[in-house]
Fold this sequence. Notes:
There is one protein chain. The chain is of the alpha/beta class. The protein folds into 2 domains: about 10-230, P-loop containing nucleotide triphosphate hydrolases (Rossmann fold), CATH 3.40.50; about 235-300, Alpha-Beta Plaits (2-Layer Sandwich), CATH 3.30.70. About 35% of the residues lie in helices and about 25% in strands. The chain has helices at about 50-55, 80-85, 100-110, 115-130, 145-155, 175-190, 200-210, 225-235, 250-255, 280-290, 305-315; strands spanning about 10-20, 25-35, 40-45, 65-70, 75, 85-90, 165, 195-200, 210-215, 220-225, 235-240, 265, 270-275, 295-300. The chain has a 6-stranded mixed sheet with strand order 6-7-8-3-9-10, sandwiched between helices. The chain has a 4-stranded antiparallel sheet with strand order 2-1-4-5. A 4-stranded antiparallel sheet has the order 12-13-11-14, with helices on one face. Helix 8 (about 225-235) packs across helix 11. Residues about 1-5 and about 320-330 have low confidence and may be disordered.
Amino acid sequence: MGVAAGSGEVAIEAVDLVKRFGETVAVDGVSFSVPRGTVMGLLGPNGAGKTTTVRMMTTLTRPTSGIARVAGYDVRTDPDGVRRSMGLTGQSATVDELLTGVENIELVGRLYGLSSATVRRIAGDLLERFSLTDAGRRVVKTYSGGMRRRLDLAVSLVATPPVLFLDEPTTGLDPRSRVELWDVLRGLVTDGTTLLLTTQYLEEADQLADDIVVIDRGTVIAQGTPLQLKDASGRAALVVTVSRAEDLGRAEQLLRTVSSEVHVETPARRLTAPAQGLGDVTAAAAAFADSGIDLDDLGLQRPSLDDVFLHLTGRRAEDDLPVEDEEVSA
């Protein structure tokens, strides 16, 4: 049983979603649920089925089979309810570059049937929230890529939807703009918005997502928190870097009092050993405390999400599949 329209704790739900384009199966039995006020990262390379999944969830593409609900509304039987409850930011900014930032927001507000006074208030609030107040009266074609993405996100929030779908929201942004947008998204979640985020950036999923669904070739191959996925792909490692290469031998002996398996990388002056958790870090720190060995670093290193993807698929995330037709690709 799904949640009733407009109630319950599940904001986004997919059950055995399938989408076929002729002989091509773009999405093959994808299932997940996203609790209200959380962020789910849909992670996978180009061609994995991420965008097609989002298009089904947002009523842009009808599922071949399966169930999809947003805020309790079924995408098949109540698409209008879905659209009233969600916002969507696609892979490229969809704002009109010949209008100003204010005009873009006001245009969408009028399409929603909001009064002029309400639209003006919302435009001012959104421009301030997304650090675009000074640029609000400028035409969008003068905006940087990061400013356009922030305006695109602002436009999607005109009707204050409780659910927001973000399809590759930081694609093409420089690192600084990406971090700035992450901060904006964290603010939205703090205010109660539920986010579904598709991304190829492993760091982005690690930074933002409460839960991650890894999708590859149209199917879900793993799901869990970032930490759960990392732990499932391999053990954490205790990493010690000594300041002087001549101390490597003694450092290895000391580290073996914590772990019997120690790997020494002489050029990097680094030693690594399997670790069970932070307790091993504490034990290693105590072992080195009175040793007279100067350390550059001592800490716990967990597998990265890139390691997770390699473990799950046999290839790294940057080894993308070829991009297919837009309707089929992700």
